């Protein structure tokens, strides 16, 4: 079977660093007004250059238009020209945010879509006034442009920052790993939809998306330091508390993780279960429930989460094999 290929996204910027440089130019955070304006002018010029290349995201294009209208709003500027520039920017922004969601047979009211995507309805109303009524006042337009720029910063530029941070491999830390599972525990207990959901690989609701983020963090820790991840899960009261395994709570999370991670986790738990069995005095009727780690191995068997080779390992184990044979 051939490996699955993905189509690369074509962007006008050469790399992520260039993209985030543009973001910092648009939102410089400088106390000097002249320096801040110069930074924004660089961002606008760069955006215009990107427009020539094509494939500029609507949010980037609109940020350029809105910020341009802001910095051209000076005491010496013609008020009508400023109002026209701001009106055009607001119309372009709102249309571009709403139109992609009009994909059905019937037209959905813009206010309804705005509420669904978190866009202030005030901007939709302002867009309607700009399009169909008398040109709004400069005061109204300034408020609208400022609101649109703030919305873009929060819902586009800052989101891209967060995605970039998530993609970086974190250094393994037991406390941070435990915090991920604590967040999952709260999320799972507070959302009944998660408990009823059998497939968490395609998140739709906010709790499901939060779950997907937590699962992704576990995978990143696995990539950077699997030994610390597994030691934390097994020995830091993540997979069991007071000698009781957290099966109902953790099984949905475990099933969503990559098979190679589960395979390595099995090997870690297998070695740990045998080590414990060698150092404890157990009854002749030794079972997989002799310790919580071994009990998790039983769960792996029951849920058919083992490869044939791993099943063979269990059945060949002197301490775990008897019960494994009964289960398999």
Give descriptors for this structure:
16 helices, 328 residues, disordered N terminus, 69% helix, mainly alpha
Question: Which secondary-structure class do the elements indicate?
Answer: mainly alpha
For the biggest sheet, the summary is: 2 strands, antiparallel
State the share of residues found in helices, binned by percent.
55-70%
Q: Assembly type of the shown chains?
A: single chain
- What's the end-to-end separation, in Å? 30 Å
The coarse overall form would be: elongated
Work out the count of structural domains.
2
The secondary-structure element order is HHHHHHHHHHHEEHHHHH
Q: Which ranges are low-confidence, i.e. pLDDT below 50, for 5 or more consecutive residues?
A: 1-7, 281-290, 321-325
Q: Which percent band covers the strand fraction?
A: under 5%
Task: Give the number of DSSP strands.
Answer: 2
Report Rg.
Answer: 28 Å
Spatial order of the strands forming the largest sheet: 1-2
Number of helices: 16
Mean pLDDT: 78
Q: Would you give an account of this structure?
A:
- By secondary structure, the chain is mostly helical.
- The protein has two domains: 16-167, no CATH class; 174-327, no CATH class.
- The chain contains 16 helices and two strands.
- A two-stranded antiparallel ribbon has the order 1-2.
- Helix 4 packs across helix 7, helix 11 packs across helix 13 (259-279) and helix 15 (308-316) packs across helix 16 (321-327).
- The longest helix has 30 residues, at 138-167.
- The relative contact order is 0.06.
